[in-house]
Amino acid sequence: MHVGARVVLAFLPSKRPWSTSLRGTSIKGMTITFITGANKGLGRETARRLIECGHTVLVGARQREQGEEAAAALGARYVPIDVTDDESVAAAAANVAAHEGLIDVLINNAGVHGPVGDPSDLTAADALSVLDVNVIGVVRTTTAFLPLLRLSDAPAIVNVSSGMGSLALTHDPGRPESHVVAPLYTASKAALTMLTTQYAKGLKGIRVNAADPGYTATDLNGHSGPQTVTEGTDAIVALATEEPGAGSGRFISRHGELAWS
Ligand SMILES: NC(=O)c1ccc[n+]([C@@H]2O[C@H](COP(=O)([O-])OP(=O)(O)OC[C@H]3O[C@@H](n4cnc5c(N)ncnc54)[C@H](OP(=O)(O)O)[C@@H]3O)[C@@H](O)[C@H]2O)c1
C-alpha cells in the first residue's frame, strides 16, 4: 500500500461498506468516478452513460443550481468545484474524501473555448483565462484528487483534450481541425495532451489517457458540431471503463488512436 494512503485511511471513514477491503474496484459496478464540468454537454452525457455502466458518479460543477439539477436528474451526487479556484478544488476533494473516501476514475472534462476572431486582438488576460481552466485547472484538480485515486486498485485519469491540440490534425487539410483558427484553445489542448503523456510517465500505477471527443454539438461551439453528445462521449466512456491493463499515455478518439504530433 502507498505510504500516503495509510495516512489518509487513518482519518477517512470507510464509505465502502460493500467491500471487504478499503481499496479498489474489486467488485464490479462499484467504480467511483468524479467528473468536472458535468452539469451539461459532454460531461453530463459522460455521467449519464457511466451511471448506466454501473459507476457511482460524482457530478462536479461550479454552479450549484445546475450541478444539483444534473445530479438529481441523473442519479448522481453533486460536488461543487470551480477548477480555477484552489480553495474550491481542495474543498471538492475534501467533500469526496468525507463521503466516498476514494475515487477510481477522475475525468478532467471542464473546459472553455475562449475568444474567437482576429488573433491580433488577443490579450494576456484572455490567454490566462483559457489556460487557467483547460490546463492549470487539470493540474489543480489532479493534484487535489491524487490521494483519493491512490486508494483505488485501478486508478485512472481521463483528460478531455481535443484534436484541436494535435499538430498533425490541425495541419491535415482533410481534417476539420485544420480550418479553425483558435490560438488559445488549440494551445491549451496541445498543452493538455502533453500534460497527459507526462503524467502517464510520472504517475506510476495510474492510467492516464486523453480523449478527443470529436466535433460535437454543445454550448462550447454554439451547437455547431455534427456529432451528438453520445457520439462525442464514446472515447471518454471507453477510457473510463476499459480494463486496468489497457495502457497509459494514449490519445484516442471514437475512431481509434490519434497522433500527438
Ligand atoms: N464540443 C466539442 O466539439 C469538443 C471537442 C473536443 C473537445 N471538447 C472538450 O470537451 C470538454 C467539455 O466541453 P463541452 O463541449 O461539453 O462544452 P460545454 O457544454 O460548454 O461544457 C463545458 C463544461 O465545463 C464547465 N466549466 C467551464 N469552466 C469551468 C470552471 N472554471 N470550473 C468548473 N467547470 C467549468 C462548464 O460549466 P458552466 O456550465 O458553469 O460553464 C461546463 O459544465 C471541454 O474540455 C472541451 O474542450 C469539446
Explain this structure to me?
The chain has a single domain, classed as NAD(P)-binding Rossmann-like Domain (Rossmann fold, 3-Layer(aba) Sandwich), CATH 3.40.50.720. It has 8 helices and 8 strands, in the order αβαβαβαβαβαβααββ. The protein has helices at 3-11, 41-52, 64-74, 86-99, 124-149, 183-202, 229-232, 234-241; strands at 32-35, 56-61, 77-80, 105-108, 156-160, 207-211, 251-253, 256-257. The longest helix is centred in the middle third of the chain and has 26 residues, at 124-149. The protein is globular, with a radius of gyration of 18 Å. Bound molecules: NADP nicotinamide-adenine-dinucleotide phosphate.
Task: Give start-end ranges of low-pLDDT stretches.
Answer: 1-28
What proportion strand? 5-15%
Query: How many domains make up the 3D coordinates?
Result: 1
Count of DSSP helices?
Answer: 8
Kindly provide the name of the CATH class: Alpha Beta
Order of strands, main sheet, comes to 3-2-1-4-5-6-7-8
CATH architecture: 3-Layer(aba) Sandwich
Secondary structure tally: strands = 8
What would you report as the Rg, rounded to the nearest angstrom? 18 Å
Notable characteristics:
binds NADP nicotinamide-adenine-dinucleotide phosphate, Rossmann fold, 8 helices, alpha/beta, eight-stranded mixed sheet
